[in-house]
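Structure in, sequence out. Go:
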């Protein structure tokens, strides 16, 4: 998920039986900033009007074969950009709300 995090300091808290490392405040802040940037990128993707087949399976909570079946039945309309097959988020929302035509 996150490729590079600041390394923890090697200050070992020795009064406890488990090996626990103590992070400096600056390290915790750097980790928090990295996580926040990752979440912002993910949120901007999640608000797109078109989603991939894999994203659709996650949104609907069903498998790929079920999504492809819904496409072949006409329940889901596809858009093709290059070699990618994309689905309208509005169609997925309609299915989740129970207001699809099929």
């Amino acid at each position: 998920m996150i490729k590079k995090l600041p390394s923890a300091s090697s200050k070992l808290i020795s009064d406890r039986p488990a090996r626990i490392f103590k992070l400096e405040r600056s390290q915790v802040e750097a980790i928090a900033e990295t996580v926040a940037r990752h979440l912002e990128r993910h949120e901007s993707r999640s608000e797109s009007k078109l989603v991939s087949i894999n994203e659709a399976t996650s949104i609907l909570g069903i498998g790929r074969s079920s999504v492809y079946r819904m496409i072949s039945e006409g329940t889901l309309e596809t858009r093709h950009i290059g070699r990618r097959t994309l689905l309208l988020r509005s169609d997925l929302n309609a299915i989740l709300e129970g207001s699809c035509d099929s």
